[in-house]
Amino acid sequence: MVDAIFADRRLAAVYDSLEGERDDLDAYLAIVEEFGAHAVIDVGCGTGTLACLLAERGLDVVGVDPAAASLEVARAKPAANNVRWILGDATTLPPLQMDLATMTGNVAQVFLTDDDWQATLRGVRAALRPGGRFVFETRDPARRAWLEWNREESYEECDVPGVGTVASWHDLLDVAEPLVTFRSSVVFAADGTTLTSDSTLRFRSREEVERSLVEAGFRVEDVRDAPDRPGREFVFVAVTA
To answer: What is the value of pTM for the model shown?
Structure first.
């Protein structure tokens, strides 16, 4: 089941505004250039920000996501007509031969079981050409990022054109490592509506992720630091073996 923050139309419509400047995508744009990729699939593309940025650069782009509401937002963006949008996930992709697969926004952590994670990895690998690369990020569990998921430290307000002031924050609900559950709350000042979305993430160690990639038929080429969040995340670069 897709979390409400991505599946609810009203929440999906303000998601980009709540996220703010996506400086984290600069690293992925640089990686696309670094590896000379011409065909890219964005797995868990959400509202399509990265996919559209790549399409604007003339690349062959596929964006796949299980949330119809998020894809609805994505399809309304500039350059969206140059992206092949797919409602689904990595396990439901049609035959593809892409140079590069990306998974931004710590999407890798939404796969809670080993079976689901392995199925996703195999699906990504099948979508890549021989020698294609898979680049994604995941939080370092040693940093215990969830300690900051409380109203005091996460509260934000923003003015959304046509919507008005929107407030948002996170509340930690449960920690049973490696699983962490939290609630996202969004308040629309215009009518006082409060919408919530509960999410559970799995925090895998670097060694666990590397092992899972090898089991799925990848070779780990590099593990980098996230330039916009140094010391907080691992950025994995894997190549089809």
So the answer is: 0.95
